[in-house]
Specification:
Helices cover 41% and strands 17% of the residues. It is α/β, with parallel strands linked by helices and 180 residues long. It has one domain (5-174): Flavodoxin domain (Rossmann fold), CATH 3.40.50.360. Strands 1, 2, 3, 4, 5 and 6 form a six-stranded parallel β-sheet that branches. Helix 1 links the parallel strand 1 (5-9) and strand 2. Helix 1 (17-33) packs across helix 6. It binds flavin mononucleotide. Flavin mononucleotide binds next to helix 1 and strand 4. Flavin mononucleotide (FMN) binds at residues 16-18, 79-83, 111-114, 117, 145.
Length: 180
């Protein structure tokens, strides 16, 4: 069975630059490694995400949570909100079973309005997936929104993303310990 890879964007609007990074990573995974990615975002989860517990989730929101839990790997794309990830993005992961992502490869990307918060990928996103004992790939990718103004990526970001894609593909279907 082919690996189930989910791209998950912490975006609640479309089009979204953070989704563009996930789409670029997905295109790279398809072209270079034959891996198909299903991309989801907060719009897919819908208003039914606003629940205190899993039992209260709407059907669509439950589907997004379950898709993430069942994924063999995740490609994350987040807009930067107040120097971190959006609260609703964290809410999704608050509802994920603590053991669900153990040893799963996770590719981290984020987009901010400027460049000052580029370390959000290292100081916010990576520790979140560290909690889950997931296997975040070494190269994380950050872009300022102006850098992907026309949908194409500057060469330096494209090269970083290609590195991250290759690392992610190497980890897919292997435990972190095996891949190291
Ligand atoms: C509530 C909110 C808070 C934001 N906080 C930051 C921030 O702290 N740092 C930053 O670089 N950009 C911040 N931004 C800008 C977004 O990260 C940026 O506009 C987004 O990633 C690009 O989205 P786009 O798809 O609309 O172009 C914020 C945007 C919003 C709506």
């Amino acid at each position: 069975m082919p690996p189930r890879v989910i791209g998950f964007c912490g975006t609640s609007w479309r089009p979204a630059k953070a989704r563009a990074l996930v789409e670029a990573a997905s295109a790279g995974l398809a072209a270079r490694h034959g891996v198909t990615v299903r991309i989801l975002d907060l719009v897919d989860a819908g208003a039914g995400l606003a629940a205190f517990t899993r039992d209260g989730l709407g059907h669509a929101a439950r589907g997004v949570i379950e898709a993430i839990e069942q994924a063999d790997g995740l490609v994350i794309g987040c807009p930067v909100f107040q120097g971190s990830y959006p609260g609703l993005f964290k809410h999704v992961f608050d509802l994920i079973g603590p053991g669900a992502l153990k040893n799963r490869p996770v590719l981290l990307t984020a987009v901010g309005g400027g460049l000052r918060h580029s370390l959000v990928v290292e100081h916010q996103l990576r520790p979140l997936f560290g909690f889950f004992e997931a296997c975040t790939v070494s190269t994380a990718v950050y872009a300022g929104s102006a850098e992907i103004a026309d949908g194409t990526l500057p060469p330096m970001i494209a090269a970083r993303l290609a590195d991250a894609v290759d690392q992610f593909a190497a980890h897919l279907n292997r435990d972190c310990a095996d891949a190291a």
